[in-house]
Amino acid sequence: MGDCVNSPLPLSTSQATPSTGTxxxxxxxxxxxxxxxxxxxxxxxxxxxxxxxxxxxxxYAILVLMIAQAGVAWNILxxxxxxxxLGHAAFYGIGAYTSTQLLLLFGLSxxxxxxxxxxxxxxxxxxxxxxxxxxxGHYFAMATIAIAEILQIVxxxxxxxxxxxxxxxxxxxxxxxxxxxxxxxxPYYYIILALLLLTMGASWLLERxxxxxxxxxxxxxxxxxxxxxxxxxxxxxxAIAASSFLTALGGSFYAQKELFIDPxxxxxxxxxxxxxxxxxxxxxxxxxxxxxxxxxLTLIDEATRAMFGGTGRGTDLIIYALLIIVVAVFxxxxxxxxxxELEKRWLEPRQTGIDRKTR
Length: 359
Description:
By secondary structure, the chain is mostly helical. The protein contains 17 helices and 2 strands. It has helices spanning 2-6, 13-16, 20-51, 55-80, 89-106, 110-132, 138-156, 175-178, 186-208, 210-220, 222-227, 232-258, 263-266, 269-282, 289-308, 315-330, 334-358; strands at residues 167-168, 260-261. It has a two-stranded antiparallel ribbon with strand order 1-2. The two termini are 35 Å apart.
């Protein structure tokens, strides 16, 4: 009550905030420009197959969307909740192997197998998350690496899952329900584009819900979050469940696109690092950061493959390590953070000049 009595009411809106109109108009214009840019990017993504000259270029676009989708899924746990996992390839591989085995053994549609794979990944994530969330910081990251490595070793030595040889899926054209397209890669492009948009939509909803606020509180001030009654382990488990489910969907898509899986391609530590790095490079905790990071990293992959071929195997890992060092030291907020700093430096002097003219 005392605050209400002592706080003077403004005589008028313009008198209370003399520059609100100008700054508000500028902010509205900036938001409108961003919406227009997003719509333009979405329109370009939808029209891309008709603009691409050959199948290899379209395959490059598919690879970008695949790792971007996995990066956005990782960002829920590593970006919003601040729990850096370097073992997400485990969830990716679970999605791939579950849908593949259900198809080979029971003839179940990969679409349904994809959902089952997501559920299995969630159960596995909750099982490992319960003990691992007792750890903090780099100890948690090392634990996730160890678990992913153990799972890869188990699958490599399990004949029922194809062992080190891997599993091959039926090559016959099966259409949309069978999720096999031999004549063109265009259906795969639109499926992974839809999956990326679904993952981004889920991430956006989580970020703006009460869960998003809890995740950020756990990331930034865990002790303060605990003191106000937030159950840290419970909401960390929610974060890893959502992240693992969406990551497993991407793994199932990989299996159907390549029609072959093995532990080295779906559960490798290098894949876990790449999934995390696209978000770290683009900007952790941002919705579009993993997409930007995916474009950059896929370009690096393709460039090193073209330059070095088989003799350059492992060069991409060296570049990944250098990128992590550069981002951690110079640009901890990633490309998105760097761009926002440029925007602030460019817009603030301009806005100051506009305010002076209006006074």
